[in-house]
Specification:
alpha+beta
Length: 305
């Protein structure tokens, strides 16, 4: 097979179906951009889970005098010193507990003022209205229920709260957003494949005379199909290249500069450039193989070679 002939036929095909080729490039670029973005979102969720779950605390809030009048869990009155000592002793005996920190009413009041000092309610609160608590670091955050079952309902305990439940809601939302992006990506991918098939068929129909002559003189099926397959692969590669550019620009302007989320949201450990760069070869490979295979199967039926 002469490479010059194949390259010339690719150029002819791309110029002859310029509008449809442009539509293929745009569709491939958008679908693969969403594909790469979904992969990065999945990496981001995994990174955030590893970062935040490692910092999850279980809090045991103790009854104060105000709770004794309004909360059924504190009907027996405010927590006593003996009850606090017993709770702390039981916590240290539990093998799943890694670390226990005590927060007094004054410390809780100080933290509240730091976080919600501008709230109208903060001016009416006093330290004795705040709750003492034990902040517990677990060796395995998934075993929160062991702490909850051991201390919920105990005298002096108002409630047991797990921060992991709040994080789970956040990660469920992020996962839902990621699945929505994958759904849109799948729809765009189907559109791109249909455009590729139609473009290849239009190109084959417009050159049916040439392909007929090539069949008569004994040209092999692959020799006839190669220019059409390469046209689709080249258009897909251009689209894949654009998708890579979109990902790099998106990462640069949303996290590092422009929106600068890395500076504004320092509590979030964003995925780095290494995660982006490792996705680019996969996107480029997909952008070549997907159109080439679509063209190959479309031509087998259309050209009957």
């Amino acid at each position: 097979m002469r490479a010059q002939f194949v390259l010339s036929e690719i150029g002819v095909g791309l110029r002859r179906n310029l509008t449809m080729t442009f539509a293929v490039i745009v569709s491939v670029a958008l679908s693969l951009s969403l594909f790469g973005g979904s992969l990065l979102m999945s990496d981001q969720v995994s990174t955030m889970k590893g970062y935040w779950y490692d910092k999850v605390n279980v809090s045991i809030f103790l009854c104060n005098k105000s709770d004794a009048q309004s909360d059924v869990n504190c009907a027996k009155g405010a927590v006593t010193e003996d009850q606090k000592k017993q709770i702390l002793s039981d916590l240290h005996k539990m093998p799943i507990v890694s670390k226990v920190a005590y927060e007094s009413q004054d410390q809780a009041y100080k933290h509240y003022k730091e976080q919600f000092g501008n709230s109208p309610l903060s001016s009416s609160l006093t330290p004795d209205q705040m709750q003492e608590s034990y902040r517990i670091k677990l060796k395995d955050p998934k075993k929160y229920q062991v702490i909850a079952s051991a201390f919920n309902g105990r005298d002096g305990v108002q409630s047991v709260q797990d921060q992991k439940g709040i994080l789970d809601n956040l990660f469920q939302l992020l996962g839902l957003m990621n699945r929505a992006a994958l759904l849109v990506m799948a729809m765009m991918l189907i559109v791109a494949l249909l455009l590729i098939v139609n473009t290849v068929r239009v190109s084959a129909f417009s050159r049916r005379r040439e392909t007929g002559i090539m069949r008569l003189v004994g040209a092999s099926g692959f020799y006839i199909q190669a220019p059409f397959i390469m046209e689709a692969a080249v258009a897909g590669l251009i689209g894949g290249g654009l998708a890579c550019v979109f990902l790099v620009i998106g990462r640069y302007f949303t996290i590092d500069h422009g929106m600068a989320l890395a500076t504004k949201l320092q509590l979030i450990n964003f995925v780095g450039w290494d995660a982006v760069l490792t996705k680019l070869p996969l996107i480029l490979a997909t952008s070549v193989l997907m159109p080439a295979l679509a063209a190959f199967f479309a031509l087998r039926k259309y050209l009957k070679v």
